[in-house]
Amino acid sequence: MAMDDVVKQPSEPGRSRRAPLPKPTAVALAHAQLRQSILAERLKPGEWLRQEELATGLSMSRQPIREALRLLGEEGLVELTPHRGARVTPLSLEELEEIYGARIGLEGLIARYAAVKIDEQALETLRLALPRLTALSIAGDVDLYLTEDRAFVEACYAASERPRVCRQIASLRERAERYLRLVFKLGTGFQWVDFSYRLFQACVAHDPDAAEAAAQGALRWTLAQATALFEGRETVDPHGTRALRGG
Hints:
By secondary structure, the protein is mainly alpha-helical. It has helices spanning 3-8, 26-39, 51-58, 62-74, 93-117, 120-139, 142-158, 163-185, 194-204, 208-230; strands spanning 48-49, 78-81, 85-88.
């Protein structure tokens, strides 16, 4: 059979031309599920992680659990102690300050790029997302609010055309989620999306200074709220209302 005949042959009925995506490995599944459980605090800070219990809960052997814990250790979400095992890394003011210090610098920079380069299609995506964010903040749905807020910010930052920096920001935001949820527990995180609107308006105006101020303002506010919790002080709302997003 000629090569041209092979190329032109139609696919069999019901069979997709596209190769199926590879299934995630047991290690990848264990890593993803344990990571999300830590970020959502289903596994609490400081909690010891027993491989046998985790393996039973995830219906898999101990080997992928062991490897997943090693990966989580590299990410700083799990502490591995010789002869004792693994535990969820405790929350600390030092880590909080490190994460948010890095985010404030990177997100201010990327917001500037995004405001200059964003196009009408991306602006329309942001515009349509804002009412949904407002509704979720009023409803008090933590998981959906954080998911939608992350999608909003990522859609904005993608316009910067700086994918490497965006990946760094996404990683830092995931590490920050445990601290952000502390703020939500007291209700102060459920503020309407003032900073999100400011970021959107800055992008509409293609104003890099305003975009940087909006992105960094949200992060600085969240840092102040979480720091106050660590120090046993009341959280602070600079506007005197429940009107700021968590970041």
